[in-house]
Amino acid sequence: MSTSPRNAPQILKYIAFGMLSVSVVLVILGVYFYQKEDAFLKECNLITCKITKIEEKRLGKAYVTFSEVNGNYKPYVYYVEYDASESDLGYNEGEVHEVYYYSKDPAQSQVKGFFENHMTSFILLIVGFAFMLDFPILLMVVAKTKKQRMAQRQYGIKDEVISE
User: Fold this and answer.
1) Host H or E run for residue 58
2) Under 8 Å between Cβ of 147 and 157
3) 108-120 pLDDT, tens per residue?
4) pTM of the entire structure?
């Protein structure tokens, strides 16, 4: 298949269906990862923790220690990287946060928050839905191009006019 202007609508149609296929795969992966992340969070205990220590050896890289308020669980150390020139750490000693504590491996525990807990699935779903929105737009472009070509053939309008 050559890429002449005559084949442009056909190529756009293939691109549209390709993007639809990619979007369906991304949405399915997003749902899969959401369920996987959610299943992991169900295995964790949701506990209330207090920040007992913040150790920042290098600017922009900090270790935040969360200790359960009742002392029933081992402390959880959370590693945070942030851009020190644009924002602050976002955590202060003495603050209370909820933590999904994974008893089998405390290093896999997570601070409660939608983006912290579901980042992968969120990105996949957003990109998948964005690609899905492109599908009808590309099909409308194909239909408009075909309609213009039909009018050109019907009324004898030529693409190129050479005048002297």
Assistant:
1) strand 45-58
2) no
3) 999 998 888 999 9
4) 0.71
